[in-house]
Amino acid sequence: MNEIVFFNPADSIGNFHDYNEAIKSAQIYKEKNNNEAKSVLVVKGVNKPEFEIFLADDVVNDTNTTNGEAYKINERF
After folding, report:
1. Tens of pLDDT along the chain (77 residues)?
2. Distance, first Cα to last Cα, the chain
3. 4 strand-pairing partners
4. Of 24, 29, 18, 17, which is closest to residue 54 (Cα–Cα)?
5. What is d(CA 18, CA 37) in angstroms, rounded to the nearest whole number?
6. Who's near 57: CB < 8 A, 6+ residues apart?
7. What is the reported pTM?
């Protein structure tokens, strides 16, 4: 998946250095919160080494905003 999306970093559910830990945490979050209708995304900042978890609903649609940072989607649950 090479889709680039924009998020406000303050909306991040979690921040991880390890990809597998991010995946596991996203799966646990999805299970605990019963978000069947909402997608949980594991993303990596374009210029950052960390992986972060966001809800797909938190995508910033206006790329001209100063609050949005670019992220590459790695996994979608």
Report:
1. 678 899 999 999 999 999 999 999 999 998 888 767 689 999 999 888 999 999 999 988 765 666 789 999 999 98
2. 13
3. 72
4. 29
5. 27
6. 38
7. 0.86
The string over 1-38, giving b where at least 16 C-beta atoms fall within 10 Å of a residue's C-beta and e elsewhere, is eeeebbbeeeebbbebeeeeebbebbeebbeeeeeeee
**Residue owning tokens 């406000």:** 8
Report the C-alpha dihedral over residues 34, 36, 37, 39, rounded to 10 degrees: 90
- Do the bridges between strand 69-76 and strand 40-45 make them parallel or antiparallel, or are there none, so unpaired? antiparallel
Kindly state the tokens that stand for 53: 């978890």
